[in-house]
């Protein structure tokens, strides 16, 4: 029997088979979970629906996470199929491409607001809307990045939004903790996905992380997914309000690592 047998969860943020959310969905399905999916925009529907079907998705509905009514509609859809929600994966972020290069102080007011609402507030709104349906022992996971803690090239306003997201995780953990509902973030190392393609010089960031992380390689979607599974399942039963780094140890390196002798 899989560790997620009988668990019902919503996965937000699948864009294609490279998405971190998709790797998490595959891992949850493998362990026996029932899944509901959302997609953002018509063009995404063509990609997400077949993926959802592949893992026997119970529903697959549109959702602009910045739209309160859309988020409520997802919860209402879940209520048609299930009498509770056991887990949620929030794997959503957005900033305008032009904000992810150049000087941080050139961030526009509108660009700041867009990144904050799309990447941090959506998590708050999602938790509030889902709260009445969340079961005792439920678990919520979101995705963050090291740019929340450190200045990383080109990450700019997204770093600020991820810092806000990680703070939101702590406040949400306190709100939901008394009901034995856990809220955590995974700070993933860089992975080549659609969202990452918007970050300036992303290839260079990948190479830098590979060459300077203690493990001398980059993380995979599947490795992030296995950590998400742990947090969503029984393995994470006493972990909440946390941001776990899944980045081959890159975050512990304070300067360019000395090349190996051998
Ligand atoms: P991705 O492009 O596959 O996923 C991003 C998703 O966000 C897409 O499905 C997109 O449709 C969705 N989205 C954006 N705005 C939305 C909105 N308003 N409503 C609903 N959905 C919306 O890329 P990914 O790399 O899998 O990104 C998933 C998460 O992982 C993001 O939060 C990202 O910041 C985070 N992350 C990515 C990396 C990386 O290097 N790829 C590293 C650390 C953290």
UniProtKB/TrEMBL annotation:
<dbReference type="GO" id="GO:0004318">
    <property type="term" value="F:enoyl-[acyl-carrier-protein] reductase (NADH) activity"/>
</dbReference>
<keyword id="KW-0560">Oxidoreductase</keyword>
<feature type="binding site">
    <location>
        <position position="13"/>
    </location>
    <ligand>
        <name>NAD(+)</name>
    </ligand>
</feature>
<dbReference type="InterPro" id="IPR014358">
    <property type="entry name" value="Enoyl-ACP_Rdtase_NADH"/>
</dbReference>
<feature type="binding site">
    <location>
        <position position="92"/>
    </location>
    <ligand>
        <name>NAD(+)</name>
    </ligand>
</feature>
<dbReference type="InterPro" id="IPR002347">
    <property type="entry name" value="SDR_fam"/>
</dbReference>
<feature type="binding site">
    <location>
        <position position="162"/>
    </location>
    <ligand>
        <name>NAD(+)</name>
    </ligand>
</feature>
<comment type="similarity">
    <text>Belongs to the short-chain dehydrogenases/reductases (SDR) family. FabI subfamily.</text>
</comment>
<protein>
    <recommendedName>
        <fullName>Enoyl-[acyl-carrier-protein] reductase [NADH]</fullName>
        <ecNumber>1.3.1.9</ecNumber>
    </recommendedName>
</protein>
<dbReference type="GO" id="GO:0006633">
    <property type="term" value="P:fatty acid biosynthetic process"/>
</dbReference>
<dbReference type="InterPro" id="IPR036291">
    <property type="entry name" value="NAD(P)-bd_dom_sf"/>
</dbReference>
<dbReference type="Pfam" id="PF13561">
    <property type="entry name" value="adh_short_C2"/>
</dbReference>
<keyword id="KW-0443">Lipid metabolism</keyword>
<feature type="binding site">
    <location>
        <begin position="191"/>
        <end position="195"/>
    </location>
    <ligand>
        <name>NAD(+)</name>
    </ligand>
</feature>
<feature type="active site" description="Proton acceptor">
    <location>
        <position position="145"/>
    </location>
</feature>
<keyword id="KW-0276">Fatty acid metabolism</keyword>
<keyword id="KW-0520">NAD</keyword>
<feature type="binding site">
    <location>
        <position position="95"/>
    </location>
    <ligand>
        <name>substrate</name>
    </ligand>
</feature>
<feature type="active site" description="Proton acceptor">
    <location>
        <position position="155"/>
    </location>
</feature>
<feature type="binding site">
    <location>
        <begin position="19"/>
        <end position="20"/>
    </location>
    <ligand>
        <name>NAD(+)</name>
    </ligand>
</feature>
<keyword id="KW-0275">Fatty acid biosynthesis</keyword>
<keyword id="KW-0444">Lipid biosynthesis</keyword>
<comment type="pathway">
    <text>Lipid metabolism; fatty acid biosynthesis.</text>
</comment>
């Amino acid at each position: 029997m899989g560790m997620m047998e009988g668990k019902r969860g919503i996965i937000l943020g699948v864009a294609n088979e490279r998405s971190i959310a998709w790797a998490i969905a595959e891992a949850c399905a493998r362990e026996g979970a029932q899944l509901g999916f959302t997609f953002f925009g018509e063009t995404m529907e063509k990609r997400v629906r077949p993926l959802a079907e592949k893992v026997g998705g119970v529903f697959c509905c549109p959702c602009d996470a910045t739209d309160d009514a859309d988020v409520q509609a997802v919860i209402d859809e879940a209520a048609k199929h299930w009498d509770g929600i056991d887990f949620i994966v929030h794997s959503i972020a957005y900033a305008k491409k032009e904000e992810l290069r150049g000087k941080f102080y050139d961030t526009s007011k509108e660009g700041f607001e867009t990144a904050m609402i799309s990447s941090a507030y959506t998590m708050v709104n999602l938790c509030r809307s889902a709260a009445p349906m969340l079961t005792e022992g439920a678990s919520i996971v979101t995705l963050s990045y090291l740019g929340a803690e450190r200045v990383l090239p080109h990450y700019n306003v997204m770093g600020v939004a991820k810092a806000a997201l990680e703070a939101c995780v702590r406040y949400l953990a306190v709100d939901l903790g008394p009901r034995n509902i856990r809220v955590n973030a995974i700070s993933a190392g860089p992975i080549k996905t659609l969202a990452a393609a918007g970050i300036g010089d992303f290839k260079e960031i990948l190479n830098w992380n590979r060459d300077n992380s203690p493990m001398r390689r980059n993380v995979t979607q599947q490795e992030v997914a296995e950590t998400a599974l742990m947090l969503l399942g029984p393995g994470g039963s006493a972990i909440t309000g946390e941001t776990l780094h899944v980045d081959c140890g890159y975050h512990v390196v304070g300067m360019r690592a000395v090349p190996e002798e051998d």
